[in-house]
Structure formats: structure tokens, C-alpha cells
Amino acid sequence: MENFKIEVDGDGIALVTFDVPGRSMNTLTASVIKEVGELVERIKTDAEIKGVVITSGKTTGFCAGADLGELGGNGGLGGGDLQAAFDAGFALNKAFRELETSGKPVAAAINGLALGGGLEFVLATHYRVVADLPKLQLGLPEAKVGLLPGGGGTQRLTRLMGVMAAAPYLLEGKSMKPAEALGFKVVHEVVPAGTEVEAAKTWIKTKGDPVAPWDKKDFKIPGGGPYTPTGAQVFIMGNAMLRKNTYGNYPAQQNIMKAVYEGLQVPFDAAIRIETRYFLKTLMTPQAKGMIRTLFLSLQELGKGAGRPAGVPHYDVKKVAVLGAGMMGAGIAYVQAMAGIETVLIDQSQEAADKGKGYAESLVKKAVSRGKLTQEKGEAILALIHPTADYDNVKGSDLVIEAVFENRDIKADVTKKAEAQLADTAIFGSNTSTLPITGLAEASVRPASFIGIHFFSPVDKMGLVEIIMGEKTSQEALAKSIDYVLKIKKTPIVVNDSRGFYTSRCFGTFVQEGMELLSDGIAPAIIDNVGRATGMPRGPLEMHDDVALDLSHKIAVQTKKDLGDKYEERPFTAVIAKMVEDLGRYGRKNGKGFYDYPESGPKTLWPGLADLVEVTVKDADKALIEQIRTRLLYRQAVEAARCFEEGVITDPREADVGAILGWGFAPWTGGPISLIDGVGVAKFVETLDQLAAAYGSRFTPPALLREMAAKGETFYGRFGVKEKAAA
């Protein structure tokens, strides 16, 4: 076999080493799945084999699960034939079950992470020994990409742990450490690394029970099954909590609950067939297809620099100057230091710069207290941050990140000061969130090396960086910027210049549509509750508070100044102006916006809002809820489509990943472009026309969408994956 090596010792114990050639990590490829069946047949029929120990030949782990590249690229198992689809989907489940019922004791020597199908593989053995490694994880993360475990995971884990204990690991995709797994009886032994094979062999020689617990007559489900009073209560509460947390947007979670509920009431062989049916049903949903593609495949590709131009030598950024030591600049300084980059943190005064470093100090202190960093490592990280007010310290920097206020004059001033200290090879990046890069580059004497590098707040938690190309930005500057972003372990997307670029522009439509709904007289509580129910992290009004109303107002004022007669005044603009200018309500940052934020207790809607906007709709029926959901999601998606038409963004992967990581666009959709493709462009255009007729031109489909609808095209089909130009 290509993926498994078998060595039988003098005691008749076969050591099976799982080692997929040419890969740093084992995954369950089609080739592996085929060979698992062959492996089991050999175990069953070879009289020389008395027992089996399965381990990994990789130092990186046991197995990371199914190969989602193969799964995500499959248009549908079985080519449309239901029986063929079931047979293909059941193949792994069947092989694992045959291993479990082979009549010979099988132990797993787990020497690294076992996730997804990797954990399901070891759960199909009779005894599990795991190495005591601090970073080792065991889990079933399928739900995170819109899938459910399809190799017996929903059935074995619940029979080992009980439904209540297993729920977070199935529904949320949580992983467990070795000690935790031992406590839940998911594994039987935790041993020093390097001794797991020996321990597994000892079990086979001394006990070697070849029958799984659920195949024994006295087996009882921990906590009781769905037919017991206690178990029934778990499912009643579980379904209520599932609805509360997912709003019914995620088929995977619903189908996991169904597979568990139904599977625990039947014999095990029937249970895994039920699981496979729900696995296939889930795999065929638009949500699963979109989430696999965006949250796994595209995220991996972009995280490896898929947007980087070819032909530019790698640029190792060793020193960076950050201009502005406010919350954003301080956050950037911290993530750079964490990546081992020497950082000069500049502000107008030494006191302000020191305060910026203080933010990093607080984060390091917290990490040390939680055992995530040693004191020595924490001190070494902080030693890389040099707070100063002196621009002479910029000398020797490979890159400058400007993170001052959204004011053209201030940005122009610091650009000139910093550029005076830079070598010709260095790059200047502006962390603006809205101001066009081409305009800001006018203050630069080296516009080819001037680029937008837009971080998201809080920088230490947000994984996306939006790189913006100005009209004169070179491909070399782009390549160097991507190298920097990858070094600080963020995911880059590349967009072209525009007001608001891609993320801020599209995100802005979400909060703006919330304001439009408010202007239509809909109660604020309805707007935000439905906003959360769409899958967004916050409702549009509370999200507006989070990003700051005064910032929104400043951007509106600057935009009006820049656009002049072309600026379109909306009814809600005056409401925001009054809240900011007259009432001093800036949002969460000063404790008052659309909501009041008391020092203790939860936030509450500001009662005074009713004096600014008349509420005429106080109750929401099913039709209104669906209407609001559609308006909020489609308003963002049509803006993303306009960005494609205008060339602001050109890669569907970057559009979808950027939307989910950047502003929290409903992950269950796979992103706005996956949403459009999933609905169908023609159907999407039809709905937009209806919305435009009812609510205004902001919903009018761009010409690109009408053309694509007429041709029956999709975004991923039309734009695909474009090769990046060489410098």
C-alpha cells in the first residue's frame, strides 16, 4: 500500500504506520480511504496478525481529517446517482466499522493531532493511547466549515461522552487536549511522548479486548439516550440553544442534532448509515459548499500568498516604523513584535508613544499570566518596541505603517517626515480605512512604493489585512507588502483604489441599511435582532456604535467635501450629525450612542432615539423579518458586485474571505459572492429589481450582474482564480 506500512512483530502485533507520501500532514484522501478498506481486509484475513497498533509516520500529527480540497472540488459524490453517492459517502464509515468489528484488538498510538476523520479513525479502534504533548489536539471541527462528521463521529463520541458533554465538540467544533480527552474517556491512556506505541502494544498483550463498548449487551449511553427522561431533556434544551445561537442558518448543526437523535435510538450499524445520509444531505447544501471553499480552501490559499505577484524576490521585513501610537498603531506594534520585527512606535510626544507601548505591555502581561508566554519571552517581545517622538529613528526601516487620524493634512505631514528617512527599497503603507490611496500618495515623493495596508481593530484578534493598490503603486511594493502581512501571520487580500476600498465600502452598507430601516420607522430592537439573525456578529445599530458614530460622521463630512454636488444626502445623515454634534453621543467608546453603556450591567437601547426618529413599526411578523434579512444581506452583496464591476476587487476568493474576516459577513453564506452564486445570479437580479422598486436605487443591479444573469454565469466561473502579474 502507498499510504500505510505494516510490520508484524514476533508477538503477532502489526504496527500500522499511516504516512501519506509527499505531504507534511496525513489527510484522508480518496487514495487513503480506498486503502483503509484494503488495510482492514488484511487485518481480518491475515492469520499471522493477532492485534494491531495504528500510529502516524508524521512528526506533525496523526491525521488532520478529510482532504477538503478533494471534497470541496467535487461537484457531488456519485455524479447525481443517489445510490452511488451513498456508497461513496459511506465508504470510510464502512471501513472504520469493519476495523472495529474485525475480531482482533486494535489500538491507536496517537503521536500528534487527530482532527475530523483523523479522530474518527482512532475512535474506531478499541484502545487509544495519546502522547502527552501540550499542543496536541483531538476534535471534530467539521461544523466550522459547514459539514458534519461523516466517519462515525456523531455516534461514537456521544456514546463515549454522553450527548450533553459531546455537544460542544460536535456543534461548535471544539477540540480537546489529552488530559481532557482522558477525563471524558475518549482516550484510555496519556503517556510520555515517544512511548505511545509501547503502551498500545502492552494493552494488546495484557487485555486486548476486541469488542467496542456499544457492541456489548450491557452498554448504556452516558446520561441516557433520547428515550430516557434525562436524555429527552438534553435534546429539548439543546434544540432551543441551537436555535438561539444559529438562528437556523447552519444546516450542519441542525443535521448533527438529527443524526445524533436518530442514531442513538437504533443499533450502531443503522446509526452510521443515518449519519452518512445526513452527511451527504449537508454536503449538498449551498452553505457547506460556500463555507468549505471560503473558510478552508480559499483561506489556506490566501494565507500562503496566493495574491502575491510572481517574479519578485522575497522581502524579509526586519524593522518597521509605525506612525501613530493610538489603539490601531499600538495594536500593529504588538503583532509586529510578536512576529519578531523591530518596531519604532512614533507619536507627537514621548508620553503618547509610551502610552501606545503600554497597550502591548498589557497584552503581554495577560499572556504571561495565562501561561501562553514565559516572562522571558514576554520581555523579549516588548524589547522590540521602541516608543519615540523622533522621526530620526525611522532610519533603517524596511517598511512604514502610517496609522494617524483620518485627515489628509495630518497624513501628508507624517508621510513627508518619514519618507525623508527611508531607503529607496523601503515601502510606505497607509492604514487608512476610507481615504483613496492615490490621493494620499500625492504627498509622497515615491508613489510607486506607496500602498494601502489596512488593518482591522482590534489588530491582535482580527486576522485580515486589506492591501490597497494606488494608481502608481508598483507590483514590487505589493509583493513586499504581502510578505510583511504573511510574516505577522495575517491573511492578505488585494484590492484596487476606491473610496472605502472594498471592506469599508461594503461594511458601510450594512450599517447604512440599518439606518435606512430606522428611517422607515422600524423599531430599533427589531432591526438589531433581525440583523443578528442574518448571521452578522452584531445588529447594524449596535455595530454602528462599535465603530463609533463620530467616525462615521467625520467620514460623511469628508466625503461630502470631496464629492461636492455628487454627494447624496440620506435621511439618516442628519440624525447622526445631531447625535454627534449636539448630543455628544459617539457610540460605545464614550458609553452612549444608539445604546447606553452603563459601567455595570448590559447595554440598553437609548430611549431618546424615539425623539429623533418616529417608530411606526413595533411588531415584526415572518414576512417583515424576511424582508429585513434580505435587505441587510443583499445590500452588502450588491455592493460587492459593484466592486467587481469597477475593478476594485477581482478575485472571488479575496472578496469572500475579506468579507467574513473583515467585517463578519454571515459566515454561513461563504461570503457575499458565494451568496450570489448560491442563490443564482438571475434570481439575485430579480430580487434586486424588486428591492430597488420598493426601496430605492441603492439596490439597482449593476450592468455586470445583468450581463452575467443573461449568460447564466457565476462569479467563480467568470472570474475564477487569476494569475498574478509579474513585476
* Strand composition percent: 5-15%
Overall geometric form:
globular
CATH top level label of the domain at 4-277: Alpha Beta
Question: Architecture of the domain at 4-277 in CATH?
Answer: Alpha-Beta Complex
Low-confidence stretches: 723-727
Task: Output mean pLDDT.
Answer: 94
**Major sheet details:** 8 strands, mixed
Strand order across the largest sheet: 13-12-11-14-15-16-17-18
Alpha-carbon distance between the two ends: 45 Å
Radius of gyration: 28 Å
Number of E strands = 20
Structural class: alpha/beta
According to CATH, the fold-level topology of the domain at 4-277 is 2-enoyl-CoA Hydratase, Chain A, domain 1
CATH superfamily of the domain at 4-277: 2-enoyl-CoA Hydratase, Chain A, domain 1
Helix percent reads 40-55%
H/I helix tally: 30
Task: Itemize the secondary structure elements and their pairings.
Blueprint: E1 4-8, E2 13-18, H1 30-45, E3 51-56, E4 61-63, H2 68-72, H3 82-100, E5 106-110, E6 113-115, H4 117-123, E7 127-131, E8 138-139, H5 153-161, H6 163-171, E9 175-176, H7 178-183, E10 189-191, H8 196-206, H9 229-246, H10 251-263, H11 268-283, H12 286-303, E11 319-323, H13 327-338, E12 342-346, H14 350-369, H15 375-382, E13 385-388, E14 399-402, H16 408-419, E15 427-430, H17 437-440, E16 450-454, E17 464-469, H18 475-487, E18 491-496, H19 503-519, H20 524-533, H21 540-547, H22 549-563, H23 571-582, E19 595-596, E20 604-605, H24 609-612, H25 622-645, H26 652-663, H27 672-679, H28 681-695, H29 703-711, H30 715-718
Parallel strand pairs: 2-3, 3-5, 4-6, 5-7, 6-8, 7-10, 11-12, 11-14, 12-13, 14-15, 15-16, 17-18
Antiparallel strand pairs: 1-2, 8-9, 16-17, 19-20
Helix pairs in contact: 1-3, 3-11, 5-6, 9-10, 10-11, 12-26, 12-27, 13-14, 14-15, 19-21, 19-25, 19-26, 20-25, 22-23, 25-27, 27-28, 28-29
